[in-house]
Amino acid sequence: MGTFSQTIEIASSPGGPYETVDALVDSGATYMLLPKTILQRLGVRPLRKQPFILANGTRTEYEISIVWVRIDSEERPTVCIWGEVDSKPLLGAYTLEGFLLGIDPVNKRLVPV
User: Fold this and answer.
1) pLDDT one-digit tens code per residue, 24-80
2) Are 65 and 45 in contact (CB under 8 A)?
3) Which of these, 96, 75, 85, 84, lies nearest to 32 by C-alpha position?
4) Nearest residue to 72 (alpha-carbon basis) of 21, 3, 8
5) For residue 70, which of 26, 7, 24, 27 has the smallest C-alpha distance?
6) Alpha helix locations (H) across the chain?
7) Residue 64 CA: distances (Å) to CA of 19, 61, 74
8) Is 30 left (phi over 0), alpha (psi -120 to 50) or beta?
9) How many CA atoms lie within 13 A of 79 on its CB side?
């Protein structure tokens, strides 16, 4: 389906403060992923470690948290995976569905569904 970037805002709680992030919209990714440096800077704390099976079949564990996301003035809590320091922020299907958004791959934008 392809990928593109979307500017979003992230916070540890609904009251903020929010930090602007350019995230890669990827319908093949299930959850949001943010570099641990961003999460630490915002004061987000890990809830637990969760096992995952990656696309290449590798089994691994990542810490997960709940973060607040703002997209076009709408705010929602979502599951977030703690990525490595050099990870690219990802906006996955779980978060998009929570915002009732779909992907327009031709125009590379998010659309209401």
Assistant:
1) 998 789 999 999 999 999 999 999 999 999 889 999 999 999 999 999 999 999 999
2) yes
3) 96
4) 8
5) 7
6) 36-42, 93-98
7) 19, 9, 22
8) alpha
9) 14
